[in-house]
């Protein structure tokens, strides 16, 4: 759970939002890749042959054994009865029976052995596909990560190849079963066709009726799945919250246990009612299916008995055809069931391939080299506007801005003014919908985007700190590659060296107590210093500080910005803040409002204009002054 739990969670809004997302997902599916089952089968086979060809060989062996064992089992009773009716010797009967039984036992043993081998190789293929998804996720254009449809595809793709019961693991099982069933069906079809073709027609028709009856259950489940998922989502949410350390304080302080239990119980009852309706549907269909099965088998066996009584069929052949009829129906049912399974898996693989083939827009080639990449150059924004999609309003409007080398620029404005969006455009994470961003006079679209990212070090408002050692966090690399002297210099510049030295393990201390038993936690200010050390270690010519101190009080924020300013003297720096007093030391300040630069200048110049900047500064100063007076009055009263 994110943030506080003080306000009750609105489950109605969650359901509405879920429905809206599902509707949008349906519309976005029109843009997804649509390959046939055969095309996706070829895709999987090709990938398997390129990486683990042994898996395909094992699957082929299992297909052969799966088809042979039922056929041998079907013929065994006929052979035994023929041996008896033909008055063969006991030794001959035992020999024939022993050969058949041994073949079946050997086949079953090989089958189990191959199943376990396949299980291991499927795991290796899962890892291969999982690596593909991970690589795509890590290297895709940042704009894709802001696309909700892309993120949905990403989540589904991770699930489709994660674990031995994932969709990609199931595709091998489904193909093996389908082909095995097809071979067995063809073999039994060949046996029955010699008996009576009309019998085959009768068996196929009644089997299809049973199939469509069972399909009604699947359709009902699909039509009512949204209700079931709604109950499950709410229950999963409460389960997740109950184990979330961030929510633990609110749950106890506000005595939310009873309320959460009531909500959980209500949804549990709803889910139970859903399953009761589902069970009732299954029961009705099962009764109908059983009646058709009884009818099918009764008529078939009556016909076989008629042939025996007319001396058109021997007892051994009766037993054979008796088993063949049963097997034929089972094979056909299995084939139809596997068709449904393959269709379901095909949808998942299409989503996976849609994710993997999601278009990349940014240049990843080396058309133009960035000269003197270790030094900052002029950044210029020309008539830059931006909106997230065609249906939304502009977030930024006609921005024109020049950032000279080694300048310290502050971008200020109220929340929602477009500050973070402007920063993402400047550092090339997203491209403007209109206008240009020039670096050293060249449009950044013409540079290799990965080279553009090397120009920037950043401390973002929404940051991530991995649960590794302090040294690895700062260096963003494994411990063996960390430059200790450089690390200690950056920690000192960031004002965190003394704190790290006080730790038992020093720079080798592990971060995050929730992961490590001997892990450490840091205060808000210490985290900001750690992130600054990380930005300094990268030693990029341009540093962006995007409201990294938003959670700090004004004095702590100002002190933090003064550390930033001192550490960034040899770099171009962008400071982003909604607190105007924190960035008065910058060479230039721009004030954003509704995505437009409304004022520009130094701190003193903007104050002297008595414009919007002045009004905001005075308002914030007054609020801060009143807060300080109240704090002093409280101290005096104590």
Overview in brief:
The chain is of the alpha/beta class. The protein contains 21 helices and 10 strands. Strand 7, helix 19 and strand 8 form a beta-alpha-beta unit.
What's the alpha carbon Rg, rounded to whole Å? 35 Å
Shape: elongated
Tell me the number of strands.
10
Strand content: 5-15%
Write the CATH homologous superfamily of the largest domain. ABC transporter type 1, transmembrane domain
- Briefly note the CATH topology name of the largest domain: ABC transporter transmembrane region fold
Structure description:
The chain is an alpha/beta fold and 638 residues long. The protein has three domains: 11-356, ABC transporter type 1, transmembrane domain (ABC transporter transmembrane region fold); 362-455 and 543-555 and 572-638, P-loop containing nucleotide triphosphate hydrolases (Rossmann fold, 3-Layer(aba) Sandwich), CATH 3.40.50.300; 467-539, Rossmann fold (3-Layer(aba) Sandwich). It is built from 21 helices and ten strands. It has a six-stranded mixed β-sheet, sandwiched between helices. Helix 6 packs antiparallel against helix 12 and helix 11 packs antiparallel against helix 12. The radius of gyration is 35 Å and the shape is elongated.
What is the fold's blueprint, element by element?
Blueprint: H1 11-28, H2 37-51, H3 53-85, H4 90-139, H5 142-145, H6 148-160, H7 167-193, H8 197-223, H9 225-242, H10 245-253, H11 257-309, H12 315-356, E1 379-386, E2 396-403, E3 408-412, H13 419-426, E4 434-439, E5 442-443, H14 449-453, E6 456-459, H15 470-475, H16 484-493, H17 497-501, H18 524-538, E7 542-546, H19 554-567, E8 572-577, E9 588-593, E10 596-601, H20 603-608, H21 612-637
Parallel strand pairs: 3-8, 3-9, 6-7, 7-8
Antiparallel strand pairs: 1-2, 1-4, 4-5, 9-10
